[in-house]
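Exercise (ungraded).
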Amino acid sequence: MQQIIYIMDFLGVVVFAVSGSLAAGKKRMDLFGVLVLAMVTSLGGGTLRDMLLDSGPVFWVADPAYLLVVLGASIATFIAVRTLNAPRRRWFLVFDAMGLAVFTVIGTAKALETGTGAGVAVVMGVMTGVAGGIIRDVLSAEVPLVLRKEIYAVGSLCGAIVYVLMNMLHAVDTASIIVSILSTFIIRMAAIRWGLSLPVFTFKGGGSTDGEEK
Amino acid sequence: MQQIIYIMDFLGVVVFAVSGSLAAGKKRMDLFGVLVLAMVTSLGGGTLRDMLLDSGPVFWVADPAYLLVVLGASIATFIAVRTLNAPRRRWFLVFDAMGLAVFTVIGTAKALETGTGAGVAVVMGVMTGVAGGIIRDVLSAEVPLVLRKEIYAVGSLCGAIVYVLMNMLHAVDTASIIVSILSTFIIRMAAIRWGLSLPVFTFKGGGSTDGEEK
Amino acid sequence: MQQIIYIMDFLGVVVFAVSGSLAAGKKRMDLFGVLVLAMVTSLGGGTLRDMLLDSGPVFWVADPAYLLVVLGASIATFIAVRTLNAPRRRWFLVFDAMGLAVFTVIGTAKALETGTGAGVAVVMGVMTGVAGGIIRDVLSAEVPLVLRKEIYAVGSLCGAIVYVLMNMLHAVDTASIIVSILSTFIIRMAAIRWGLSLPVFTFKGGGSTDGEEK
């Protein structure tokens, strides 16, 4: 099981690195920009989690294999995109959903292992899943997509809650991991399939209530 | 005294969470975006402070009650704003100023407790007060308001300096806290009342001197 | 040698603080914004490095002299730019390249000292050199310049790799430092002189492959 998780983790890193590289391409960044966006997208969420939990070194400092995987994935994207013009969008989305699911359960489990409460563990799980994409969009000078539309974070949220609940009920860890991953994955795929989204926060009457603004 | 500070801290968290939720609304974010902006606005400054001071776990990891407060405040804002269209701007500004004052003194005191020098303590106090709002604006893809206009950070700066000075003069801690909070609060309210602002940095002669730009 | 490095480090901090202050001026920020941008530009990279390495307190918390230097440099810029309208661009670029070179070697050496592998050390070196400028641009709501054009990070990358290699070959540390600094510096100056840049990542056929986007 541990090994399967490890492999899926690397697959998630690859997909998120590709996603970051493509975002860099959209902003016409150079090769260095591609590398940086690939790194923050795939490693950013887990890095933030490890800094907040403060339980030993950040995962990619402890296991530099992650850096090599990101390097490989981003250079491959850089080269492949120039020659290949029909990326297999459907497969990309499937792998992306899988990456989200695995990152979420890893983050949640790591938080619980360090002894945090249930609420903090859920936050850490979701953060591991989505923070990388948020930093990617910030570096692209855009309002992060995940904050705006589509059920993306909600899948991660459900996966994290499911894992925490099963953990509290003393379920076998392997079962908790599988059910958590499936929860995230299925919700995300359903959201893509039927175009689900969360209610958007719109308020009329324009008047700003923010203390700092005019 | 400790209890009063604790209660005021939570009040500050509520106000900053509302401020973050409203910023999310302005950018038409969805419910998840509202939650994230509420969290970073209200917890971001203290989180950065705790990571920099590196003295034990981040405050909301140690005391998850903060997460619940943010969750409640942001959902309440999400619901209330849709039905209620005349937010009481004046009260909001007063509470915001109070939040700024309390966050500042808490940050400054926490830094001094870990043994930092006076300068670092002032930086930590101001950071606790304003960094959350800066991250909120970055996630909204805007140049942070606090860097541009109005006396906002200056109130926080004065409150932090006052606390450090009184601490160096061995004043009773309760007195230092009260005077520091009043300093920040009064300067902030005066700035709102009379529209005070800092000199803006404008330079003519356009020629860029930045090494990286064309 | 240690002393020369220390002096060059402060010189780098001054130059980066000026660069941050000027960026704040371009966005018409106020005096507080100038201070914040000067701080994040000059101290941001090293701060991120120290938080990731998690080896004792962040450098400017341990040695607050850095804060004073940034404060002085940004206020001087704030005043000087208003009266002086012909900044000596050429000298600024030379000092900026020197700052980049020194920051890079300091970051790389610090990582190796804490026992990281070669790859992580290179990442830390480059991060120390360029992350401050990236945060500066994020706070200016711009796509970071260093991700887009000109050989800037590549100089830093070469300097870091050179240092790591010489370290692995057990070269005298003084020699490693000098060769590393010269590598970064010369590549950066050559890039400015001949307008070198990295290949840009452009892909045609518009179709988004990003999982989150419509």
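Further reading is listed at the end of the chapter. For now, observe: DSSP finds eight helices and no strands in chain A. Residues 205-214 of chain A have pLDDT under 50 and may be disordered.
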